[in-house]
Amino acid sequence: LVVPRRGGIVSPEQLSRGTAEQLYLCLRLGLAAEFGAHGAQLPLVMDDVCVNFDPERARAVAAVLGGHAGGQQI
């Protein structure tokens, strides 16, 4: 479940496709970071990860992925 800034609770099914994909990407990045913190570097394999993101969100995701690229294979 997602708790938006405005409050309440939203299920992933209620999110737009782009927002749901961002949610799942954040979960994957968090999981990879947690494994990395315990010595297991996981490669991240993605295909068209930003295809359903608006330009602003796509730039933000590219910056986040760039930050992760220093510590693991993307």
Features:
74 residues; globular; mainly alpha
Describe the 3D structure.
The chain is an all-alpha fold and 74 residues long. 0% of the residues are buried. It has helices spanning 17-37, 55-68. It is built from 2 helices and no strands. It starts with 16 loop residues before the first helix and ends in a 6-residue tail after the last helix.
Q: What is the element string, with H for helices and E for strands?
A: HH
Please outline the major beta sheet.
Answer: none
- Could you list the spans in which at least 5 consecutive residues all have pLDDT below 50? none
Global mean pLDDT: 87
* Structural class based on helices, strands and sheet pairing: mainly alpha
**How much beta, percentage-wise?**
under 5%
- Put simply, the count of helices is 2
Euclidean distance between termini CA atoms: 27 Å
Q: Report the strand count.
A: 0
Based on CA atoms alone, the radius of gyration comes out at: 14 Å
> How does the overall form come out from the CA principal axes?
globular
Helix content: 40-55%
